[in-house]
Amino acid sequence: AVSGEGKVFMMGPTVLPHVDGKQNPPSSTIAVKMPDGGVGEATTAWTFSDDSETGFGNYLYYKGSLFWQNGYYSYGAPRNLYCIDAKDGKLRWQTEAPGESHEWLFGSDGKLFILHETGELVVIDADARNDYHELARAKIIDSTWSFPALVKGLLYVRSGTRLVCVDLSGKFEALLTVDVTKGEMPLPVILDAKNSYNLNGTI
User: Is pLDDT above 60 for 119?
Assistant: First the structure.
């Protein structure tokens, strides 16, 4: 769940599709309006369609929009990326999910970032209101299940063996790569151009 505009956005009641080997009823995405002053009864502000629950990833409220991907890719469920108006729950745009894995969403500097567990980072225009607009993508690390951290334009991503810092301020350069199995944490240093990442799909 995530909050914004006096609401809490969350997945409706659901049961994982693999439980007991049965096909369970789809779930919705709902917005719950908090009572004034935080005291009293909460009410449902809006409900967005069945089978739109976030699945394994997270909801992101950013600049008046709510973003998320639905479905469990490993169960063959439909995979879509949604952008809706957080105020009234109306769809702004919807597209096929830009990746075949679990994901983490976060926003900064007018951009939506999606980090997939495969290590691929996708950058999307978060201000686009009528259609999906992808800006860039690249694989920045091996498989990861850790939520990334974004600090002053620097993205820190950890896998089971490496910590990578990527500059998201515009240069999209890898600033450091650390072997976490050795327990060493040097200060960020810019790698030479041969080892720098740029988000046009090449390294």
Answer: yes
